[in-house]
Task: inverse folding
């Protein structure tokens, strides 16, 4: 198992300064393992809401939780949304005898509940799967890209075992987990949609084509898309709009967040199959976007495109800088009209072009080519990309 010291430190610091901390992330991405390093699962302060005994202990949550002191962990909190108002009352006690760490796997429901019940009282952290900067050797990078960051997928003995784990994970999420969160959809239809949407990975979303293919209306496919987004399976990267006269793209870009899940949905089970697949470039781009956004703490991440063809893969507003990131899977990255247009139209401070080479070098004023291995370096990633 990889040592997730960085995330553990971030989590402990959040608990030290906040009365309630929400650690959100996909099912089986490592939230429970991280929490158990802070509090034993055998502790009376640990509530696993997938355990019927712990669920029964919270039939009267105020009575169960109010006497507890120190750190209290509630795992899979989206199963009991009625706990949020109780946590608000407990967090507002004068002496604050307890701090609450709640773990959840359904981002939409968690966002709604915390916004309504815990406004101003909760600190949110998001946990992703294993990252490039956590690997023990650069030789493992291709394995992480192929298998994705889910611990049981990445650490599987063989590629075949990893692929089968991901296949079972996707099936279980739709058949078992989503219904327990109150999501009611036809299982076969959602699994078919998930496979279909993987072919749109890295593209702007248009509901009409998948709706026609599935024989349903556009409202239904948008609901399917939002369900998988709430489960941390899909990222809808929102478009950026500048105050310019050019027509700009208004639809989000779609990415399967975990590269291993993307590859399973596409039927890619080996490194050779990946390198020969038409989605190779889009897979690499999405993989690196997730690596960056998992480490750069910002709510302001976008892409930008115009109907005339100009485009920037990723825009980030962070640390008083508005910057662009392009991904080019080539050994000879160069300056492009899209980058020139973006610098001018968006008034960007800097642009970097991420490529799989070894050297960092300038392409133009405020534009640099940066090796993708930079993303695997420890430390402040934003500062590494934009020193």
Result:
């Amino acid at each position: 198992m990889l040592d997730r010291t960085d995330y553990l430190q971030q989590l402990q610091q959040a608990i030290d300064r906040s009365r309630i901390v929400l650690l959100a992330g996909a099912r089986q991405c490592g939230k429970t393992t991280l929490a158990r390093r802070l509090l034993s699962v055998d502790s009376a302060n640990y509530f696993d809401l997938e355990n019927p005994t712990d669920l029964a202990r919270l039939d009267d949550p105020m009575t169960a939780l109010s006497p507890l002191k120190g750190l209290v962990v509630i795992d899979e909190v989206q199963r009991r949304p009625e706990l949020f108002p109780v946590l608000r009352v407990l967090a507002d006690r004068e002496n604050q005898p307890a701090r609450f760490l709640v773990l959840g796997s359904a981002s939409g429901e968690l966002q709604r509940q915390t916004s309504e019940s815990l406004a101003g009282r909760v600190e949110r952290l998001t946990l992703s799967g294993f990252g490039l900067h956590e690997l023990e050797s650069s030789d493992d990078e291709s394995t992480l890209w192929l298998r994705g960051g889910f611990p049981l997928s990445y650490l599987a003995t063989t590629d075949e075992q990893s692929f089968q784990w991901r296949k079972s994970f996707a099936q279980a999420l739709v058949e078992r987990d989503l219904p327990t969160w109150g999501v009611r959809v036809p299982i076969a239809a959602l699994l078919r949609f998930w496979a279909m949407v993987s072919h749109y990975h890295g593209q702007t979303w248009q509901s009409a084509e998948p709706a026609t293919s599935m024989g349903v209306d556009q409202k239904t496919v948008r609901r399917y898309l939002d369900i998988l987004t709430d489960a941390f399976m899909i990222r809808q990267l929102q478009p950026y709009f500048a105050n310019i006269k050019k027509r700009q793209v208004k639809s989000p870009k779609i990415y399967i967040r975990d590269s291993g899940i993307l590859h399973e949905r596409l039927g890619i089970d080996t490194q050779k199959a990946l390198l020969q697949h038409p989605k190779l470039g889009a897979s690499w781009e999405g993989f690196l976007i997730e690596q960056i956004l998992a480490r750069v703490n910002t709510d302001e991440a976008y892409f930008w495109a115009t109907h005339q063809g100009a485009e920037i893969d990723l825009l980030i507003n962070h640390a008083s800088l508005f910057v662009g990131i392009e991904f080019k899977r080539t050994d000879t990255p160069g300056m492009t009209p899209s980058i020139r247009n973006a610098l001018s139209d968006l008034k960007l401070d800097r642009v970097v072009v991420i490529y799989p080479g070894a050297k960092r070098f300038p392409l133009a004023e405020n534009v640099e080519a940066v090796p993708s291995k930079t993303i695997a370096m420890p430390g402040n990633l934003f500062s590494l990309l934009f020193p």
